[in-house]
Specification:
Protein name: Oxygen sensor histidine kinase NreB
Number of domains: 3
Distance between the termini: 20 Å
Strand order of the largest sheet: 1-2-3-5-4
Number of strands: 5
Structural class: alpha+beta
Order of helices and strands: HHHHHHHHHEHEEHEE
Helix content: 55-70%
Main location: cytoplasm
Number of helices: 11
Strand content: 5-15%
Shape: rod-shaped
Cofactor: [4Fe-4S] cluster
Catalytic activity: ATP + protein L-histidine = ADP + protein N-phospho-L-histidine
Subcellular location: Cytoplasm
Length: 437
């Protein structure tokens, strides 16, 4: 079974249900409306009524019962996750506190069922179906034992476990009264068994539905990661194809043009004057165009992080940005451990896209960039003092959408803060290895 239990209670709805059941148990144990007089159960066949004595130390026992129920409720705030032994001891402690409360306060048929249901609900969160059925069986056996003790009139701590009988029932002859009590006991046992089975199925359905949602979310996240990887591979293949086309067509044409111009220069008379000047300029322009083509081809085929760390690649981006835009930029990049290739590539592309947007649209006077470690995450922040914009009105910006998609595909968080006249701030929190969110 996939582990759903965390340090804190994983299902708040079930925790609230436990508190409701605990309140019912406390109300059944201490409400004067339900028990206005001390219980006077029918004496069992082995304990005649004349031998029953008042319960000694009644108030301390009531306080102990209340503390036992409070301890059972406090146990639900944290669930054990380390080992099956600790989880088994945890369930045993819950059963022990339930028994202790009933033995101290009595009223077992009213107090014991909600306490046992609390223990079974927590067992559903801790164990697979085998463990759940084992704990439910022990809880049901405990309830049957309590009913048997109450029916026989046995008082383990001097406290009657059964409920008080109305005066009209105590007038029934003992033989008939035993039959009535036996029927009520059997019906109570059967009813609690049905409730216990219903709770097991209900909580099991809730857990199964939660696991299905979690698995679906993880599968969706992995699908987004695969889509991002495929997009990057497709982009790289397309860039290589364009590079080959430029190299094979434009590059060869420029080389052929340069050769022809060189031939013309060789055949041109020495005293051609301005004609030679124009030819020289044409040759220079051809060489410059050929250099640009070769540089573009190399750029298209070159991966920005190939053979470089993320810090070094971003440093090249910042140098090009300052050279082309002349906007002052302050940067602080502190990365102790290099992230995965996917995360490093995504962060590089986000920085590249953000700097491109700033150079085109921001009209900023300064830019601040910071990238650093924060536990298992990397935090990137890019801020400028440009003209800003209204994010709610910017619904067609492909660059911002691309940054957000790259971040969420790797399990990160993308934050954008901007308003007209107050610049723009982008913050990205990315898992170092692109972990599942």
């Amino acid at each position: 079974m996939q582990q759903l239990v965390r340090d804190r209670h994983p299902f708040r709805l079930l925790l609230y249900l436990e508190w409701i059941l605990l309140s019912i148990a406390v109300l059944a144990a201490f409400s004067p409306l339900l028990f206005a007089h001390p219980p006077k159960p029918f004496p069992g066949p082995f304990h005649p009524a004349s031998k029953h004595a008042p319960v000694p130390f009644a108030i301390p026992l009531q306080v102990g019962a209340l503390l036992s129920m409070a301890g059972l409720g406090a146990m639900g705030l944290r669930l054990p996750t380390q080992s099956r032994v600790q989880q088994g001891l945890y369930s045993a402690a819950g059963l022990g506190l339930s028994w202790l409360a009933v033995l101290m306060i009595g009223h077992g048929q009213s107090v014991f069922p909600p306490l046992l249901l609390i223990v079974v609900i927590r067992a559903c969160l801790l164990f697979p179906w085998g463990g759940r059925l084992l704990v439910a069986g022990i809880a049901y056996g405990s309830f049957i034992l309590m009913l048997l003790l109450a029916f026989l009139g046995i008082r383990p701590l001097g406290v009657p476990l059964g409920r008080s009988l109305p005066a009209i029932l105590r007038r029934i002859p003992p033989e008939s009264l035993h039959n009535v009590l036996l029927g009520l006991t059997l019906n109570t046992a059967l009813l609690f068994g049905l409730v216990l089975g219903f709770v097991l199925l209900l909580v099991g359905a809730v857990l199964a539905e939660t696991r299905s949602r979690q698995q679906l979310s993880e599968a969706n996240h992995r699908l987004r990661q695969y889509a991002l990887l495929i997009e990057n591979q497709a982009t790289l293949q397309e860039r290589n194809r364009i590079a080959r086309e430029i190299h094979d067509s434009v590059g060869h044409s420029l080389v052929a043009q340069s050769i022809q111009l060189e031939n013309v220069a060789m055949l041109l008379p020495a005293n051609s004057g301005s004609l030679a000047d124009h030819l020289h300029k044409a040759r220079e322009l051809g060489k410059e165009a050929l250099q640009h083509v070769r540089h573009s081809v190399a750029t298209l085929r070159h991966h920005p992080l190939q053979g470089k760390t993320l810090k070094a690649a971003i440093a090249v981006l910042l140098q090009d940005f300052q050279h082309n835009c002349a906007i002052p930029i302050t940067a602080e990049v502190q990365i102790e451990t290099e992230p995965s290739v996917e995360v490093a590539t995504a962060l590089y592309r986000i920085v590249q896209e953000a700097l491109t947007n700033i150079s085109k649209h921001s009209e900023a006077d300064w830019v601040n960039l910071s990238l650093g470690d924060r536990r298992s995450d990397l935090t990137l922040q890019i801020e400028d003092n440009g003209q800003g914009f209204d994010p709610s009105q910017n619904t067609t910006g492909f660059g911002l959408q691309s940054m957000r998609e790259r971040t969420t595909a790797l399990g990160g968080s993308f934050y954008l803060h901007s308003q007209p006249g107050h610049g723009c701030q982008i913050q990205v929190v990315m898992p170092r290895q692109g972990a599942v969110a």
